[in-house]
Specification:
By secondary structure, the protein is mainly alpha-helical. It has one domain. The protein is 52% helix and 10% strand. The protein is built from seven helices and three strands. Strands 1-3-2 form a three-stranded mixed beta sheet, with helices on one face. Strand 2 and strand 3 form a beta hairpin. Helix 1 packs across helix 6, helix 2 packs parallel to helix 3 and helix 3 packs across helix 6. The longest helix has 21 residues.
Length: 163
Amino acid sequence: MPASRRVTRAVSEVLDMAPRRGEVSLPRLVEAVSDNRDRPIELTTADLPPGVCGQWRQYADRDVFLIQRGLPAWDRTLAHELGHLVLGHEGIPVVQAAMESTEVASSELIGYMLNQRTGCMGPSGEDAEQEAEDFAALLIYRLGRLPSDRSSIVQVRLGEAFG
């Protein structure tokens, strides 16, 4: 299924922020988004719970993208988390998620839920995950087609439009 117009527009906006000189990489795009928002975005690796490849954590003064330590293909996960951020996905607080999901919980269940990714829980969670996946796929595809000097970005966009 092709990416929605909203996702395509978001990818284009992120690529428009790309540095004009030097290599255009995913970490440099994250830095450009951070600069554009005037809000730091930190990239770090962590030992996340099993089955969790990445997390976007929002703090009062910064955002943090956590990537599972030792993940062989971290770029897709980083692009996915960036997608959540630029697409404006909002989660619900962990405590709210726990209260809505359980009446009485054991300490093991509470610990499990506190380790779960809650950024996309809620009624639109699956849609948000799919949208972030579409964003990641399109961003990585288009990033791979960018010329190293960005001087011929118009050629790349024409090539994408007309094959």
